[in-house]
Amino acid sequence: MNDSRGRNRPPLSLHIPEPPARPGEEADFSHIQVTPAGVTPRPDSFAAAHDLRDMAFGLVRVLDEAGQAVGPWDPRLSPDALRTMLRDMALTRAFDDRMFRAQRQGKTSFYMKCTGEEAVAVAQTNALDREDMCFPSYRQQGILITRGHPLVGMINQIYSNKGDALKGRQLALPTKPKPPSIIAHAAGSGTFDDTLVKTKPRSS
Q: Among 25-29, 101-105, 171-175, 197-201, whose mean pLDDT is lowest?
């Protein structure tokens, strides 16, 4: 249709790309270039931001095809340290699974799963000193577990029962009132009436 007003903008169009494979078909990932393990350089901790730009377009790969850590990013951890971290990740996965099933059974209002993200919390907590502060958010149960927080205390807080140290005044998140060097975010579960916060445990 001719536009008598003489607009110089092109007409709108919709393009729906065709996927290379449909569900049930074998996908071809041969076009993806995977960086070999151990080739990405590890910059100095005080490197300038412009020196790190190209790293955002690559992959820092530490484990080779045999599952061995190689290259400058290899932390060279002792077998005991690796076993401890593996235990913390496995415990986080088990805790996560149990709490998710409890939420599906209606035993708690909600629960944020961290499946697949266990290594993020466990690794960063081990990289920090015991006195370094952590500012966890959702899906970081591994921080508390790595710092040795009792599971019973975490479960009580999620259930908001009579064993909850926060007395039901916090959303169903695994936190504690004053954990060492862990700064929990505020998430009140009550209603605001001027300066008074009214809260009530969700279960007993």
A: 197-201
Which amino acid does the sequence have at 117? E
Measured from the Cβ of residue 166, the count of other Cβ atoms closer than 10 Å reads 18
φ, ψ for residue 65, nearest 5 deg: -65, -25
Alpha helices, DSSP H only, in 128-182? 141-146, 151-159
155 Cβ contact list (under 8 Å, min separation 6): 99
Contacts (Cβ under 8 Å, ≥6 apart) of 153: 163, 165, 176
Is there a contact between 143 and 131 (Cβ–Cβ < 8 Å)? no
Closest Cα to residue 97, out of 116, 83, 82?
116
| Structure confidence by residue, pLDDT tens digits, 45-73 | 899 999 999 888 888 999 999 999 999 99
Q: What pTM was estimated for this model as a whole?
A: 0.70
Looking at residue 17, its amino acid is: P
User: Angle formed by the axes of helices 79-104 and 151-159, to 10°?
Assistant: 20
CA distances from 52 to 34, 40, 45, 118, 123 (A): 19, 11, 11, 26, 22
